[in-house]
Fold this sequence. Notes:
The structure is a homodimer of 694-residue chains. The first copy, chain A, is an alpha+beta fold and 694 residues long. Chain A has 20 helices and 24 strands. In chain A, helix 6 (374-386) packs antiparallel against helix 9 (430-445).
Amino acid sequence: MLKHKYVLDPWSIIENQYDSSNMIDSESIFSLGNGKIGQRGNFEEDFSNNQTIGNYISGIYYRDKTKVGWWKKGYPEYFAKMVNCPNWNKIRISINNTLLDLNKCEVLSYNRELNMKEGWCERKVLLKNDKSEKIEIQSKKFISIKRENLGVINYKIKVFENNVKVEVLPCIDVNIRNNDSNWNEPFLETIESLSKNNLGIVKSNIINSNFEISTFFKTEYLINNKKINSSYSQSESKHLIGCKSKFLLNTDDELTIFKVGGYVNSNDSNKNEFNNIIEKESENALKTGFNELCKENIDEWSKVWEHSDVIIEGDIKSQQAIRFNIFHLNQTFNGNDPKLNIGPKGFTGEKYGGVTYWDTEAFCVPFYLGTKHSSVAKNLLNQRYNQLDNAIKNAKNIGLNHGAALYPMVTVNGEECHNEWEITFEEIHRNAAIAQAIKKYINFTNDHNFLDDEGIKILIAISRFWKERVNYSKVLNKYVILGVTGPNEYENNVDNNWYTNYSAKWCLDYTINQLSEIGNRNVKKHESIIKENNLNNKEISNWKKIIKNIHLPYSKDLNIFIQNDGFLNKDLQPANKIPHNQRPINQNWSWDRILRSPYIKQADVLQGFYFFEDHFTKKELQSNFDFYEQFTVHESSLSACVHSVLASSINDIEKAYEYFVRASRLDLDDYNKEIKQGLHITSMGGSWMSIVEG
Amino acid sequence: MLKHKYVLDPWSIIENQYDSSNMIDSESIFSLGNGKIGQRGNFEEDFSNNQTIGNYISGIYYRDKTKVGWWKKGYPEYFAKMVNCPNWNKIRISINNTLLDLNKCEVLSYNRELNMKEGWCERKVLLKNDKSEKIEIQSKKFISIKRENLGVINYKIKVFENNVKVEVLPCIDVNIRNNDSNWNEPFLETIESLSKNNLGIVKSNIINSNFEISTFFKTEYLINNKKINSSYSQSESKHLIGCKSKFLLNTDDELTIFKVGGYVNSNDSNKNEFNNIIEKESENALKTGFNELCKENIDEWSKVWEHSDVIIEGDIKSQQAIRFNIFHLNQTFNGNDPKLNIGPKGFTGEKYGGVTYWDTEAFCVPFYLGTKHSSVAKNLLNQRYNQLDNAIKNAKNIGLNHGAALYPMVTVNGEECHNEWEITFEEIHRNAAIAQAIKKYINFTNDHNFLDDEGIKILIAISRFWKERVNYSKVLNKYVILGVTGPNEYENNVDNNWYTNYSAKWCLDYTINQLSEIGNRNVKKHESIIKENNLNNKEISNWKKIIKNIHLPYSKDLNIFIQNDGFLNKDLQPANKIPHNQRPINQNWSWDRILRSPYIKQADVLQGFYFFEDHFTKKELQSNFDFYEQFTVHESSLSACVHSVLASSINDIEKAYEYFVRASRLDLDDYNKEIKQGLHITSMGGSWMSIVEG
């Protein structure tokens, strides 16, 4: 039985154990964000053990030059990575001339709570420093939904002796680098920095880009809840931008540092206005005061929950988990800004660069459709529409023409970022996920205008891609799709991945159907679409030939679709035969051994059953589920949720629940021993699907 | 019709055109070496256009930390790369205070000859510098076969006016870097340098290794062939280690700089003895004089040619080419040092690191067997024997146990260096090439002792590898080998590559036969081998099962072996349909497009017909040749030679000749527009095979 690291609670994540060397895991869990800016759950004060300071702004990225061992023609020039920005949260504290650092203190009691209902995080620590001075610190913070540039910290220090000298340096730490940097290069550079009394501003330029940002903070001090004036002296540390203040506290005195701060960025604001905005917003926030700001934010979160809460009665473990998933999805992306998208780890880590994968369409669009105004899903789809030209370029780049579009595996602006040939060039099923998302959106909203003006163009270009990408096998008398990687990335460069082939067939079919649906509805519109896209009957009849005659590997003996050609030649030992100490296999086996094995990283044929459930009988689902589940190791965060939904379809409620718990508590219980790298935000959409659809 | 860049001549390569921007190509062609040290054909004086200064010592390498975009478990830590050493050849010259630099001169006449019979290279240039001063330079040089640390230059400057001030700085240029460096780090560092009068010594340490080398030179001046004394002053340039001398020349005066130099290294000599060796060798060389040294070297080359010359009458193009191949093979490796091996580009370029590939066994062993004492081939095989433990580790690393050995794709000491999963882990047919080389050696020499004491252990470990690597397919009722890359690297991660499967079968069969051959000859030895290797009947009977029942893809309709499962599903357009401007496809097509195409980089099924020709009928060869040749693009240097031999077997003499010319003149005529990177040394063994075996 898995031990839960955090206290089970329906609305909060509570950490009541302090483990100095493991705070890096909790930093991911306690991340905060408002869809625009976000940050890992770092301590404000110094901390000399493992940590990853992380503060990010959605849409602000660095073009990190591609690093590969052996260049393959067609690789992209760069990987877009969200920038780890100067840290506005930093508060350096010293008590009687000793730096406050939990790692060097004796922690007498420790409690941290992430209150998901109200959207704040609070930490209370009672400690003795190395001089045996007892101190209590209490820090409550949140990122404001309403004020999207702004975060708020209320940091309290209480002492238990007289004449305690407390020196405080609220500041911006500019000594921050992205950990995931190909060439160990800085992603940004400081243009100017200013620190004056209670104000700090650092203006930075994202290197080799037009992006500029300003990091800022402003503070106010209170002693025993009364505002006080203080004198200021400049920070002595070059990389900490701010001013120090000194206080002399007596027994039971409590010093409060009320710090507001955050980022303005050139995507949203004119660079010349940065300082005005900062001045206005921080001043206003200080005036409003911590309690009012917090209340305002609680109101915003209550609106969010009103539309998206899922109540699971009598099962606190699942209740906590599903809310944790919904909470982080909302922290990462709220749909307010049509330029933004959802990174696989949100603001909780740098892995995968924080840019867009097929996860958005396959796993997140349903969540946002189900919990937000439909404009949110539409914005996400419109982004793909706006990047259609780049997707067409992308297909050309790998040698496919005639209007074929291949959406990138990873992108921020429509340009491909990923650089493994077996993924970048071959994991082409991502195209179908976009068509799927269009279908879901249209079915949900009946938004004809989007279909007629944008959606259909995407569908035509995707259909053209499949037409160009298939070839006719004389031996099989079938259309085939060679050299692909399916959703199961533990197979590379395989032929006739059933999921990919079936998805291609479906895309072509759906496009033809939508065209005729438009024709039935609006003859003129249909005509103009035909004309504008240079469609003709021959092209459509070619699509129909492929639909009719594409190879869909099938085993009569086993009554299953075959994952890809040759899959059944493998040594088909079920995954439960793998010794426990060799799991997860991707951390224990050579890549070669994984590829040769029958083990499936995430739902592949079953992903098809998830998307196309109504195309198949329960009996078909049952036999495919039974066959593939035994080989599936769920080493992708996108696997358990699909299995949960399908298990529920075949009425295996126990299994459905088991997979739901695994999907939804993946991070809270750290199944794959990797949360220090950040949370699996996009798969949280999958968890939501498994409760709502399963 | 291809224009020949160099003059056709039976014994020499002659360059009589000067093209300032293209000398980098000729630097490869005019490379010199003696199997121990070697260098590209750089000009001695300054040259401000494209060039790659290259001086290398066989066996002296740097561990260049692996660079990959996405790490896969099992990748090696480093790639061994031979070190580009300080350049002992450098002679900086100024005439009337103007630096001599061909790129800034008007070249009135230019001639460079590589005399392969005698092993020297001579360059004669008549030029006007920017002050319209006419100067003739003549440089003759060679690397001594007999004195393996030593190169010799006789450099003459002739002037045609009075009172010409000539300043000469014979030196070592330490400002040299490997071009092919993963992290742009230096591979060596200077420990100490000395320049005193006519002597220069630079001692260097290969970073993070135990290798040390000393680069040295010593000079003598002659005017009009009379030795003269000169005064010396220290070089002003920090990176040019040596002393300047000044001369005043008059009309028709000829200044000769007789410079001997080279390298001593810690593989061959005690570090403390470096200076003594340098002193002795350079002093002795100077005393011997240029003409005597040259004559001595000519004698050595005549011994080489005595055993290895191939005479082709009435076809100067082929005659020149085959000698060029033989010459470079001998420059690269002579078999004198059992620690050394053959890099794909010898001393002519840095690509592929200069370390060992399967090329050695598959393409070079036959050449050295045919032209050298059999100890040379034995040394090469003994190297693999000495690295058997590492090969066993290497197999373990990818998850194969029970004594299985997988020889590395690329290695210097038995440790794998290569880091593309589709090659490193999957191009496992290399194991069979080693067994092939053992067979060739045994058949040629009948050296029972080697077989009994070393060869059989390699064969057993390789057989164990195949046993571990196959699996049984219930669907096919056959043993299969999944997830491999065959010799055709334009297919990756395929199942049942016919060549690999057939080679595996042959290895098992050959091992069993050799075991019983040993048993027939020497029962006791046989017993001790069985015991020492823990062989038992069950293991051998398992091998026999595989031999009997391994899947060998075959098409009855086409009467061919199928390159790998699924190959016939491709769009089988012959290569001559590819537009000319898209060739070579590896420079024009995305990797994805190449993989999906039916195009074959180098002989694959046909490589099998080359190795196992006697296993098949001429009719079988003919139909496989006809089928596969049409898809083969020969974008590997190892392709044309195999096609030449096979074309000859099916009596297509015209084609055999065409392929032989292509193989043997690959570099001289620069078929693939890449010789600036260096010559294809190992494939030169293939050219030799195609003339001798074809």
